[in-house]
Design goal:
This protein is α/β, with parallel strands linked by helices. The protein has 21 helices and 24 strands. The strands form six sheets. Strands 1, 2, 3, 4, 5 and 6 form a six-stranded parallel sheet that branches. Strands 15-12-19-10-11-16 form a six-stranded antiparallel sheet, sandwiched between helices. A five-stranded parallel sheet has the order 22-21-20-23-24, sandwiched between helices. Helix 8 (384-391) packs antiparallel against helix 9 and helix 19 (633-642) packs across helix 20. Residues 9-152 form the Flavodoxin-like domain.
Length: 698
């Protein structure tokens, strides 16, 4: 398309952790090479665009957060378009293409994108390009890359149609001739994440993608190098010409100042709400030393704050990166001596990056060590754009080639296997590719914000006023070929180290005064759950399923229910069921005091199972909670269908929650004498009515 025919389209993104923004920036960058101009805005910047008067095509990239919610940056937009007074032809003038990002580990896959897509359709908007749904579970790029490749022809066809409607026949002929000269691209693609066989026809290549000719680097693979690894490739990748992404433009400028000042308070890093610094008053290890996982219970003192919560709510803990990893990174970057220097960050003058702004998660002034400790997620799995930027910082020819392969189209499976699935981070890459020496500004540009970690409350403010408890497993990442060192989770590892003195004191006879002098404090902020709460009517029965640390919120449920029963003896209370499971009864049965709730009537039915304990019984005992649930099919169906009760699931998504929902479908099918499809519809209705609720993680 000739430059004088350069056409504009509106590009909107809504992101929670930066993925959607990065993809939108890639689209913006590629647009210029296709003779198009992308007018890019965050969906929250509603003063900078107006869909009600928009005449050009609109491209939307939107992620999903929580249990299927649109990201925070899309909330105003979604609220606006969900106005029920809008006429059904409100967006009849609008043509758009939408790319949704999600994770199929969660029930409401890509629901943020689906919500916007569905509502725009209801209001009369038309697709000019098929909706893409990218799955982070298998790799976003499996859908994102071909979706972007097909976008350009779809946009040009949309412009062509637009001009035809305007009756500009001469321009139509000019554009048609340019299109006829273009390679054919398959337009109507099924972009569901379940279809992984997407391939562009041979010879199709986006014009912004650099063709990296195979460099003869005189590397002869030895007989032992027949298998690929993080640092080594094999044919066909090692012998291919590579399609690598365009180099992202630099946009950050960093200056060091050898001055003395105060680092900002942690509360200034959080925009989600009020931050509270609270003491940890109790720490208990709930598992034995020989348990496979180590579970800790921490008690926080919130008595001197206005922090409030309900059982079932979550809250976030502001955590730092591991101090040893920060020191190691400083050493590799050659910046150890400047660790305590203050850093000022500003946008580079004349940068080619569209809409470049000062990263909100980087303070205006703070020390280098503060930035690497509290602001940047140095454990993040590097995106391909970051790998592409690292290529330019690598001097060794062989290392440079391998980094090019890992960010290329041809090396997609290697990227997934050796970086994404292996949880490789920047430090691992710098060890694997020692000639790579990135600048600090590159890290600030490409490393995402260090996110606060969310935990479910395991207590009731009614039962324990002024206290907030939570339970977690210390996350372990064992060593693997791509990452030769084992690591603990960023937050759980830090918390475990922080409360080690308290854990020690709980096992010994330490006097109270000595204990109080070393009380640890952590910063938290509320992250309320709008739905995962007890039924408003106490007479409604409910069932809880929470194996392992998934039992955490249900301890708060039961504490709350017990207190209500004590205070309101005239109320009617519905029956309560709890299905709990763990590996070994004597090692990781986290709350053996559950029987107390059973004895005082708070809990009506307690059903437990132990997946790794051997049984001497003639009939094999059920190993998992979903197996136990099937044994009580009639009771479960009665609670859900006849008594309109609630069903709560908390814990691991992939290995438990999916199995539980399958069990419920089977139960509904059997007890209602309906086929499986009908049972699945009933379960969907229960979800929609907020009577089948999940708080799960992958």
């Amino acid at each position: 398309m000739c430059c004088d025919l350069k056409r504009r389209f509106l590009l909107l993104y809504a992101t929670q952790k930066g993925q959607a923004k990065a993809i939108a920036e890639e689209i913006w960058h590629q647009a210029g090479a296709h003779g198009l101009e992308a007018d890019m805005h965050c969906m929250s910047e509603m003063d900078k665009y107006d869909l009600e008067t928009e005449k050009d095509p609109v491209v939307i990239v939107i992620s999903t957060t929580g249990t299927g919610d649109p990201p925070d940056t899309a909330r105003k937009f979604v609220k606006k378009i969900q106005d029920t007074t809008l006429p059904l032809d409100h967006f009849a003038h609008l043509q758009y293409g939408l790319l949704g990002l999600g994770d199929s580990e969660y029930t409401f896959f890509c629901n943020g994108g689906k919500t916007v897509d569905r509502r725009l359709q209801e209001l009369g908007a038309q697709h000019f390009y098929d909706t893409g749904l990218a799955d982070d579970c298998v790799g976003l790029e499996l859908v994102v890359d071909p979706w972007i490749d097909g976008l350009w022809l779809a946009l040009k066809e949309a412009f062509l149609l637009q001009k035809e409607k305007e009756g500009m026949s001469s321009l139509v002929n000019a554009v048609s001739s340019s299109l006829s000269a273009s390679p054919h691209v398959v337009h109507e693609l099924n972009l569901s994440s379940e279809v992984q066989s997407l391939k562009l026809e041979d010879g199709v290549r986006s014009s912004d993608v650099l063709t990296q000719k195979l460099v003869d680097i005189n590397l002869v693979a030895s007989t032992r190098d027949t298998e690929p690894s993080l640092v080594h490739s094999v044919p066909p990748v090692s012998q291919s010409a590579l399609n690598i992404p365009a180099l992202p433009p630099e946009y950050i400028e960093v200056q060091f100042h050898d001055t003395h000042s105060e680092n900002p308070h942690l509360s200034s890093l959080i925009s989600e709400g009020t931050t509270f610094e609270v003491p940890v008053t109790k720490a208990v290890q709930l598992t034995t030393e020989d348990a496979i996982k180590t579970a800790l219970l921490l008690e926080l003192d919130i008595a001197d704050t206005v922090f409030d919560y309900q059982p079932g709510d979550a809250f976030c803990v502001i955590c730092p990166n591991n101090v040893n990893e920060v020191e190691e990174l400083l050493h590799i970057l050659g910046l150890s001596e400047k660790a305590e220097y203050f850093v000022s960050v500003k946008v580079k003058q004349g940068t080619k990056k569209k809409g470049a702004t000062h990263p909100q998660h980087i303070p205006e002034r703070s020390t280098l060590k503060f930035i690497l400790t509290w602001c940047l997620e140095i454990r993040a799995v590097p995106k391909k754009a970051f790998l592409r930027a690292l290529v330019e910082c690598t001097s060794d020819v062989g290392e440079k080639r391998r980094l090019q392969e890992l960010c290329s189209r041809q090396g997609a499976s290697d990227y997934t296997r050796f970086i994404r699935d292996s949880n490789v981070c920047l430090l691992d890459l710098l060890h694997a590719f020692p000639s790579c020496k990135p600048s600090l500004n590159l890290l600030i540009e490409h490393l995402p914000k260090l996110q606060a970690r969310s935990y479910s409350a395991s207590s009731s403010n009614l039962y324990q006023p002024g206290k907030l408890c939570f339970v977690f497993n210390i996350v372990e990442f064992p060593a693997c070929p791509s990452r030769p060192v084992s690591r603990k989770g960023v937050c759980t590892g830090w918390l475990a180290e922080l409360v080690a003195p308290l854990l020690h004191s709980s096992k010994t006879t330490m006097d109270t005064k000595q204990e109080s002098t070393s009380i640890a404090k952590i910063s938290i902020f509320a992250h309320p759950n709008n739905t995962f709460h007890l039924p408003a009517d106490p007479s409604v029965p409910f069932i809880m399923v929470g194996p392992g640390t998934g039992i955490s919120p249900f301890i708060g449920f039961l504490q709350h229910r017990q207190k209500l029963r004590e205070e309101h003896t005239d109320w009617e209370f519905g029956e309560t069921w709890l299905f709990f499971g763990c590996r070994h009864q004597d090692r990781d049965y986290l709350f053996k005091q559950l029987r107390c709730f059973l004895d005082n009537g708070t809990l009506t039915h307690l059903k437990v199972c132990f997946s790794r304990d051997s049984s001497t019984a003639e009939v094999a005992q059920p190993k998992y909670v979903q197996d136990v649930i099937r044994l009580y099919a009639k009771e479960v169906a009665r609670v859900l269908l006849r008594e309109r009760g609630y069903f709560y699931v908390c814990g691991d998504k992939k290995h438990m929650a999916d199995g539980v929902s399958d069990a419920i479908v089977d139960i509904l099918s059997k007890e209602m004498e309906a086929d499986k499809l009908e049972a699945m519809k009933i379960l969907a209705m229960l979800r929609e009515a907020k009577r089948y609720l999940q708080d799960v993680w992958s």
